[in-house]
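Entry for the shared binder. Reason: the reviewer on the internal report wants the predicted structure included alongside the sequence.
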Amino acid sequence: MATFSGGQNLNFSIPVTYLATLLSEIKQITPLSAKTTTKQKKSIIDDLGGRSVEGVIGVQLTWEYPCGQCGDYAFSLRNQLRVPVKDVYCLVVFYDRSDNPIDVDVVHYSGIIPPGLAKRVTSEVDGSAQKLTTAVGSSTPSTKVEFRILDFKIIE
């Protein structure tokens, strides 16, 4: 007896006499536990040796108020996988002109990011980070800003 999982109470059966004929024609039966199957790759995570945070990246940080010193900023979280993700946790590290870390921010984006797309995320740090990383009147830092993806969930 077989069941089709996509149907509602849809089952198939064949008479035992047919099964007996089939079994007599089979030369050697291999147990299912001895068979190996090759799983098709579902995402680039498989290429990265298992679950990896490299499937989601942070890019394009800009300050929300380039002339002010409030520290409000926005950046994009880009999903490079072939499956949607959600609950992305990201660490944003701001560096000064001497390449020393001066401030960090942990950002949680709880929404869904579809495969191959990006979502704009906003957050804030101390206003001094903006002053130490960006020329007055500019909307983008002139120093290094590092995005470290800490965790995310894959939506099956």
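Summary line for the report: The domain at 46-154 is CATH 2.60.40 (Immunoglobulin-like).
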